[in-house]
Design goal:
about 400 residues; alpha/beta; 5-stranded parallel beta sheet
Length: about 400
């Protein structure tokens, strides 16, 4: 995509998570090279599972890594299966087995985060990843970015991509820092070994149990060798926003006391859960400044209630790489185009994800009964078409916007 007389820019990607590696992979596919600077001494992904919906699956296929991921992924037959907290009554469910590929050209999968990271790594040259490099500052010197790391090294680049997560250092060079607000919710994450999981939790389904003030999601990962649990409950005084904060199974169980006994048995079988406060961040007014931009959670952290965090980072990476390749002589203009294409879509997803907490957590009563009746009359697979049918190539040719 680059002309013969165009000099290849030096691109630095801060952060070696899913978004950062996807950016490096799509840049390589577009004929550009990005160097990933990751603070950890090894590439690994903490946390547990995630959903690879059709909008992410088609981009992984385009990178040539979907086939590899499918070796460990679970292809879902049922998605967004909403159940009542007290007795497991099914309120609504998506028929993914017969409809998903027909509607969107791809299936929906669940995977462990580490498995997705591993396959993305295969699409990036080994010498393009530098580990143990914690970025502490980004400066713009005469419009040229300069990164500083905690080991004293400095690195200059023509373009910097901040894929460094919710606590992004790069974000401070792009926009005024905005403190996060407390959402009032905390999240529990845990894995249940497959040989300890009840049979209902090993179904190829993404199941959501919803109840007053809380909800819990479970689905199998790693070829069914484990079940991923993620649950949301009132945060109380817990303000730790960290993948590594620990809770006990007893604390987890206490939050769901009185729920369907099958669900309680599933939680009881869990390994040591993580717990962290869910902080609330409004959409940023901009992501880019000159030759510096943001991607993924650094740009648009969102509540996980639509399971789109990783997918949106992968979409960002695809659009960003194409914008840079098509306007490599003017990186600032390319980054403005990237922002204009992506910001409306991700802001919309931030908003609908935020609103979902109120819908899922209604107390029993008239509002809850009306919600449950509305579930019975809707098909989330069709209702969320604007999420799943998105293709960056279609959005950019002709320039149609990314909504």
């Amino acid at each position: 995509m680059l002309g013969p007389n165009v000099e290849t820019p030096k691109i630095a990607i801060v952060g070696g998570g899913i978004g950062g590696l996807a950016a490096a992979a799509f840049l390589r596919r577009a004929g550009l090279r990005g160097t990933v600077y990751e603070q950890a001494p090894a590439l690994k992904e903490v946390g547990a599972g995630l959903v690879v919906a059709p909008n992410a699956a088609r981009l992984l296929r385009r990178l040539g890594v979907l086939g590899r991921l499918r070796r460990s992924a679970v292809r879902l037959d049922v998605g967004w299966e909403f159940r009542r907290w007290q007795d497991g009554t099914v309120l609504s469910a998506e028929d993914l087995a017969t409809a998903c590929e027909r509607l969107y050209g791809e299936h929906t999968y669940t995977v462990h985060r580490a498995e997705l990271l591993d396959v993305l790594k295969t699409a990036v040259p080994e010498d393009a990843i530098r580990l143990g490099k914690r970025c502490t500052a980004l400066e713009l010197r005469d419009g040229r970015p300069s990164l500083r790391f905690d080991d004293g090294e400095r690195a200059e680049a023509d373009i910097v991509i901040g894929a460094d997560g919710v606590h992004s250092v790069v974000r401070g060079a792009v926009t005024e820092p905005r403190p996060a607000a407390y959402s009032g919710l905390c999240a529990f994450r845990a894995l249940v070994p497959g040989d300890r999981a009840p049979s209902f939790a090993l179904r190829r389904a993404q199941t959501l149990w919803i109840g007053p003030g809380r909800h819990l999601v479970h689905y199998p990962v790693s070829g069914g060798r484990a079940v991923n649990l993620v649950a949301f409950a009132p945060a109380g005084d817990d303000s730790v926003e960290s993948w590594t904060a620990r809770a006990t199974v007893e604390e987890f169980l206490l939050e769901f006391d009185g729920w369907d006994p099958r669900l309680v048995d599933l939680v009881r079988a869990a390994e040591t859960p993580g717990r962290w406060a869910l902080l609330d961040r409004a959409p940023l007014p901009r992501w880019s400044r000159g030759p510096v931009t943001l991607l993924g959670d650094a740009a648009h952290p969102m509540f996980p209630f639509f399971a789109q965090g990783a997918a949106q980072a992968i979409e960002d990476a695809a659009v960003l790489a194409r914008c840079l390749a098509e306007d490599v002589a003017d990186p600032a203009r390319a980054l403005r185009r990237y922002e204009s294409l992506r910001l409306p879509r991700t802001s919309r997803l931030q908003a609908v994800s935020h609103a979902r907490a109120d819908v899922n957590h209604l107390p029993d009563g008239p509002g809850q009964r009306a919600r449950d009746r509305s579930f019975a009359g809707t098909d989330p697979l069709v209702g969320n078409a604007w999420i799943y049918e998105y293709d960056p190539d279609a959005a950019m040719a002709p320039e149609a916007g990314a909504g």
